[in-house]
Design brief:
- The chain is an alpha/beta fold.
- It has one domain: Spore Coat Polysaccharide Biosynthesis Protein SpsA, Chain A (Alpha-Beta Complex).
- Helices cover about 25% and strands about 30% of the residues.
- It contains five helices and eleven strands.
- The protein has helices spanning about 15-25, 45-55, 70-80, 100-110, 165-170; strands at about 5-10, 30-40, 60-65, 85-90, 115, 120, 125-130, 130-135, 140, 155, 160.
- β8 and β9 (about 140) form a beta hairpin.
- The longest helix is centred in the N-terminal third of the chain and has 12 residues, at about 15-25.
- The termini are far apart.
Length: about 180
């Protein structure tokens, strides 16, 4: 059965990075269908217009310039609705490796639950990932492995959230700390 994915992104003034992210996302191949939902926070560099021109299938919503990642991603989730099998939280500065989305989907099928992607910096070191608690207030990044590795918390850069999880806990909470403005 083909997985349906709503990719949720927020952008602000990073036109080239946002376009590169979306190209890498929409170029993914596998047993899934992706629709991208972008909340653009009034980018003065013309991000929204550039996305609309280059990638007309992307659903772009113009939002005020004080809407940051949490609120923007929540708005994109609400715009996407609940019909998708998965919501993919995706930072607009992430360029996915070929096959990355298929790995996330297949991992989610084998291990139902939230699946977090690991990211690497230009030197190849893991920069964002799931995190494992190592002490009362300390965590370590989980390194990529051949199969799923449980984590205690995670960075929200690349996160595949199945419908069953959204139905149980909802979407990004309005109290999310990086949400700097009320939803309008």
């Amino acid at each position: 059965m083909t997985a349906t994915i709503a990719a949720l992104l927020t952008s602000h003034n990073r036109r080239e990075k946002t376009l590169a992210c979306l190209w890498s996302l929409l170029g993914q191949r596998g047993d899934f269908e992706v629709t991208a939902f972008l909340a653009d926070s009034s980018s003065p560099d013309g991000t929204a217009a550039a996305v609309r021109q280059a990638l007309p299938a992307v659903v772009v919503e113009d939002v005020p310039d004080d809407v940051f990642w949490g609120a923007g991603t929540r708005r994109a989730a609400l715009r996407a609705g609940e019909s998708y099998g998965y919501h993919l939280w995706l930072n607009d500065d992430v360029v996915l490796d070929d096959g990355a989305l298929e790995v996330l989907v297949q991992t989610a099928k084998r291990h139902p639950g939230v699946v977090v992607g690991a990211l690497r910096d230009p030197q190849g070191f893991v920069s964002y990932s799931g995190l494992r608690r190592t002490g009362p207030v300390s965590f370590e990044l989980i390194q990529p492995a051949d199969d799923a590795v449980p984590c205690d918390t995670f960075n929200g850069n690349v996160v595949l959230v199945p419908r069953v999880v959204r139905e149980a806990i909802g979407t990004i909470d309005t109290a999310f700390p990086q949400r700097c403005s009320p939803l309008r």
